[in-house]
UniProtKB/TrEMBL annotation:
Residues 280-291 have a biased composition (Polar residues). InterPro entries: Glyco_hydro_46 (IPR000400), Glyco_hydro_46_N (IPR023099), Lysozyme-like_dom_sf (IPR023346). Residues 271-323 are annotated as: Disordered. Pfam families: Glyco_hydro_46 (PF01374). One of its GO terms (biological process) is carbohydrate metabolic process. GO terms for cellular component: extracellular region. Keywords: Signal. It comes from Coemansia spiralis. The keyword Transmembrane does not apply. Residues 1-22 form the signal peptide. GO terms for molecular function: chitosanase activity. This is Chitosanase. The keyword Signal applies. The lineage of its organism: Eukaryota, Fungi, Fungi incertae sedis, Zoopagomycota, Kickxellomycotina. Residues 295-308 have a biased composition (Acidic residues).
Length: 350
């Protein structure tokens, strides 16, 4: 099935045929999530129970995308959770104040004493994981793949980069968010641009190789200047240089220290699904990422301090360099190997 898509670029209007729902799914989607998590939170799985007062005025930030009480995405998660629990759960006592803060865009935390305790308690529930996963997809993953579909992106590495940028910069059309960066990238092409990816985009009437377009997009993203995105950008450039354009089962990537590791679909860390390694971590510490104005799809311009302009960049200089991410994969493989050997031995005995 194909559809006719028109995308405004700011300088021109692009018309193209794009395959419907051609974005990431299955294993490649899993790999993209793990890769982005390495640079956002220093580990491959999501933090469902993380909750802390946000230091940029967004109230409380919690969960797998630092859902905030001011921006309203936290209220969306809790409403989704209410739908699964019947409405009588850990957050019922906060409903009226959370709704008020979401509707008035208030960063106040007055009346929310015990909110993080409630969030952490709920994070032990599969229903709460599912609620977070649903809103995560709605605000970040689905819009990012909508952009990918509109552009006609066919390669996993390009689709994954759209998701990674959405998480870091938001999905609005201002110049520092995903939509705006796509517009800026498209404006760079004034003639046909050949390449070796075997996938060609139609950009402003010109034929542009998909990988050549992706390289330019990454350059535009890098020019925004947020140091917290450099590790992710370097890893995607490494993937491109290794010509790992289509993701099947695992990919070689760089961590924040430039060390080569891999992410694999032997493990699943999709939002709303139970991670293989026990339950999601629960943290009562400070927020590891910072939500800002324009986070999600609200379309506000993300201005202010350069290092805090992206939707979920770390507030400190943590570049996702934790070697624990790769160690976690290695330990998992060892445990899996031991389990297989044990089962084989039992079968031989009987």
């Amino acid at each position: 099935m194909v559809k006719f898509v028109t995308l405004a670029t700011g300088l021109a209007t692009i018309s193209m045929l794009a395959t419907a729902h051609a974005g990431l799914s299955g294993c490649p989607k899993n790999l993209a999530f793990q890769l982005t998590n390495v640079f956002q939170i220093g580990q491959i799985h999501f933090e469902y129970g993380n909750c802390a007062k946000d230091n940029t005025g967004n109230g409380y930030a919690a969960g797998i995308a630092n859902f905030c009480t001011r921006t309203g995405d936290a209220w969306q998660v809790i409403q989704a959770y209410h739908n699964l629990t019947g409405g009588n759960d850990e957050f019922t006592q906060f409903d009226s104040i959370l709704k008020q803060y979401a509707e008035t865009n208030s960063g106040s935390t007055s009346g929310l004493d015990g909110y993080c305790n409630a969030w952490q308690k709920a994070s032990a529930s599969q229903k709460f994981w599912s609620a977070q996963g649903a809103i995560f997809d709605k605000l970040y993953f689905t819009p990012s793949q909508g952009f990918a579909d509109s552009l006609g992106l066919q390669l996993s590495v390009s689709q994954g980069q759209m998701y990674d940028a959405a998480i870091s910069h938001g999905t609005s059309n201002n110049s520092r968010s995903l939509g705006g960066m796509i517009q800026t990238t498209n404006s760079k092409f004034a003639n046909d641009t050949l390449g070796g990816s075997n996938s060609t985009l139609s950009i402003g009437g010109y034929q542009v190789d998909e990988i050549e377009w992706l390289k330019e997009f990454i350059n535009v993203r890098k020019a925004i200047g947020s140091k917290n995105n450099l590790a992710s950008i370097n890893s995607y450039n490494y993937i491109i240089n290794q010509t790992e354009y289509v993701w099947v089962h695992d990919i070689k990537v760089l961590n924040g220290q430039g060390e080569v590791g891999d992410v694999t679909c032997d493990h699943t860390y999709l939002p709303g699904e139970e991670p293989l390694l026990n339950t999601p971590p629960v943290s009562g510490g400070s927020s590891t990422r910072t939500n800002i104005d324009g986070e999600g799809t609200d379309g506000e311009d993300n201005t202010g301090d350069e290092d805090n302009t992206d939707g979920h960049s770390s507030d400190d200089d943590d570049d996702g360099s934790s070697s624990e991410s790769w160690a976690l994969l290695d330990v998992s493989r060892v445990l899996l190997t031991i389990a297989v050997a044990f089962i084989s031995a039992v079968l031989i005995v009987f």
